[in-house]
Amino acid sequence: MASKVSNHLDPRTRAYAEIWLDGEKVSDSLDPGEEVEPIYGPVYLPRKFKIGIAVPPSNDVDVFSQDLGLIAIVEDGKLKGFNVSVGGGMGMTHGDTKTYPQVGKVIGFCTPEQLIDVAEKTVTIQRDYGDRAVRKHARFKYTIDDRGLDWFTAELTERLGWALSEAKPFQFDHHGDRYGWVKGSDGKWHFTLFIENGRIKDTDDYPLMTGLREIAKVHDGDFRLTANQNLIIGGISPRKKKKIEGLIEQYLLSDGKLNSALRRNSMACVALPTCGLAMAESERYLPSLIGKLEPVLEEAGLRDEEIVIRMTGCPNGCARPALAELAFIGKAPGKYNLYLGGGFAGQRLNKLYKENIGEDEILDTIRPIINRYAKERLPEEHFGDFTIRAGYVKEVRDGQEFHAV
Ligand code: HEM
Ligand code: SF4
User: Fold this and answer.
1) What is the pLDDT of residue 36?
2) How far, in Å, CA of 346 to CA of 386, rounded?
3) Distance between terminal CA atoms of the chain?
4) Which pLDDT belongs to residue 32?
5) Looking at the whole model, is its pTM more than 0.85?
C-alpha cells in the first residue's frame, strides 16, 4: 500500500533529471512542454508533505509526526483499512510562538480501496489552501489549525463525494524499533540492527561497516533504513539465515542488547559539521551525554528502563525531538533547550522545561528527576508520563498548547 500511494503521488516532473556540467546542460532528456502534473499542476505544493504508515502496536514511523498518517487496521490477519491522521509536523523556529510542532489528528477510517483517493484529495486541499506567502507557515499543520479540523473533514468529504467512516480502535505501545530477529508473514527473516544515530563506520572495537559489507556479499534480501536511524537486514531466506547469523556473530553486530535502554532509544540529527542550519552539536555530542546519564540511571536501578531521548542541533526537528520523553534542541554552541513529557508511543508532544543550558546544568537538572522517577513511579509508568504527573511540565494535548505557560 505504501508503494501504491507513493507511486500515485510522485511528481511527474523530470526536471531533476537534467544534468549540468561546467555550466552547460549535457543531458536534455526532457521537453518541459510535454510535462503533465495531474495532481500538483504547475505550482506543486507550498511546502514538503510527508506520509507514513504505521502498523499497531508499533508506531515506529512516528505516524503522528506526518502530514498524512495512516494507521493500518488489521483484524484476524487481514488488512481492513486505515485510520487517517492529518496535520502532524515537527519544525518550529526558536522565539517565534506562531510556529510549533504538532501531532496529527485521527479523523476517520477508509478501506484499502479508498486509500489512494483519500491521499490524493488530502494533498490537493493543501495544494489549494496551503500558505504560499509565508514559508514558516506553509506546512499542512497550519492550514488545518487555522481553518479547523471540521473544515478540513467537510472539504475532504466534498472532494471525495463520500465521507470517511468512524475511526477504528487501535493501540500503540511504542515508537522505537524492534531490535533483533523477526520472522515475516512470507516466511523470510529480518534482523534489525542498532546503529547509533544512523552512522555506519568501523571503529577499533566495532567493525560495523566491514561486517555489513561482508553480509552484502552473500545477502539475498535487502537493506532497509528505519525511521529511527537503524538498519534492517531484510528479506533473508531461510536458506541464508545461518550464514548471516554467523556473520552477525563474527563481526559482533549489535541488536542493542549490550547497550543501555536509554542509548537504544536515542536519536540525534546530523547537525554539525554536515548541516548548515545547526546551532549546536547533535550527532557528535549525544553519545557522550548519554554516557554521562548512564551512571545516574544505573545507580537508580534504571539501566533497562526504556526512555526515549532525542537531540537536534536546531528546532527544525529532523530527529523528531518534540515527540521524545527527554529532548534537547540546540540554541547555541554547547547550549540546549530541555524538553520533558513526550509520550512513550509517540502520541504526545513534550514541553519546554529549561532554556539555553549547558552540560553541567543539564546533568544537575536531570539527575534529581531520574532519582525521583526511580522512587515514585507507578507500576509500568513511563518517564514522560511521570514528569507530567510529578508536575515538572504540563501535559501538551495539542501543538497549539506547546508554548503556553
Ligand atoms: C543535513 C541537512 C538537513 C537539513 C538542512 C534539513 C532541513 C530541515 C528543515 C528546514 C526542516 C523543517 C521543515 C518544516 O518544518 O517545514 C526539517 C525537518 C525534518 N527533517 Fe530535516 N534536514 C536535514 C537532514 C535530515 C535528515 C538526514 C533526515 C532524516 C533522514 C531529516 C528528517 C527530518 C524530519 C523527520 C523532520 C521533521 C518532520 C517534519 O516537520 O517534517 N532531515 N529538516
Ligand atoms: S534539526 Fe536542524 S541541525 Fe539538525 S539536521 Fe535538521 S536542520 Fe540540521
Assistant:
1) 84
2) 15
3) 42
4) 60
5) yes
C-alpha cell at 109: 477510517
- Return the bridge partners of 78, or none: 75
Q: Residues 237-274: pLDDT tens digits?
A: 999 999 999 999 999 998 888 899 999 999 999 999 99
Q: Work out the angle at residue 178's Cα, subtended by the Cα atoms of residues 172 and 180, and round it to the nearest 5 degrees.
A: 165
For residue 317, how far is its CA from the centre of ligand 1 (angstroms)? 6
Ligand 2 centre distance from Cα of residue 318 (Å): 5
pLDDT over 90 (residue 34): no
Residue 201 has pLDDT above 70, yes or no: yes
DSSP string of 32-66?
Answer: GGG---TTTGGG--SS---EEEEBTTB-TT-GGGS
Rounded to whole angstroms, the Cα distance separating 4 from 118 reads 13
Residue 68 has pLDDT above 80, yes or no: yes
Rg for the chain, CA atoms, rounded:
22
Helix, strand, coil shares of the chain as percentages rounded to 5? 35, 25, 45
pLDDT tens digits, 320-371: 999 999 999 999 999 999 999 999 999 999 999 999 999 999 999 999 999 9
Rounded CA-CA distance 304/307 in Å is 9
Task: Say how many Å lie between the CA of residue 27 and the centre of ligand 2.
Answer: 33
* DSSP H or E stretch at residue 337: strand 335-340
Ligand 1 atom, smallest distance to 65 CA = 38
